[in-house]
């Protein structure tokens, strides 16, 4: 009997930044999480960590590579957190540090299922 793989994150898409009719604020990103279609479904994801994984231009040393300092990678991660719901259709607001770049619009993000509030 084989174990089913454990899913650690739920996929999401960055749909844009929080905005009004004429102004937009880059410090708050809007995300659409897969299979979240109502405001009530958002409550589970409040406070969860979000990762934007992308590739940079140059290879750099990885942070936790004390065993192998020559280990280098182009992969980078920007971390954020789900802060609240946005509207009634299941979209959420998330804050990142540093702010997400505009190239992230339409790209995939990962909403991790921790920290748990259950």
Overview of this structure, please?
There is one protein chain. This protein is mainly β. The chain is built from one helix and six strands; from the N terminus they run ββαββββ. The chain has one helix spanning 39-42, and strands at residues 9-19, 24-33, 49-61, 72-86, 91-96, 108-112. It has a six-stranded antiparallel barrel. It is globular.
- From the alpha-carbon coordinates, what is the Rg to the nearest angstrom? 16 Å
In DSSP terms (H or I, runs of 4 or more residues), the helix count works out at: 1
Strands of the widest sheet, in order across it, are 1-2-5-4-3-6
Q: Got a strand count? A: 6
What does the average pLDDT come to? 93
Helix content bin = under 10%
Helix and strand string, N-terminal first?
Answer: EEHEEEE
Quick one: biggest sheet? 6 strands, antiparallel, barrel
Shape: globular
Q: State the separation between the terminal residues, measured CA to CA.
A: 30 Å
Q: What class do helices, strands and sheet pairing give? A: mainly beta
Runs in which pLDDT lies below 50 for 5 or more consecutive residues are none
Range of strand content: over 45%
Quick summary of this structure?
With about 120 residues, this protein is mostly beta strands. Helices cover about 5% and strands about 50% of the residues. It starts with 8 loop residues before the first strand and ends in a 6-residue tail after the last strand.
List key phrases describing it:
mainly beta, six-stranded antiparallel β-barrel, 118 residues
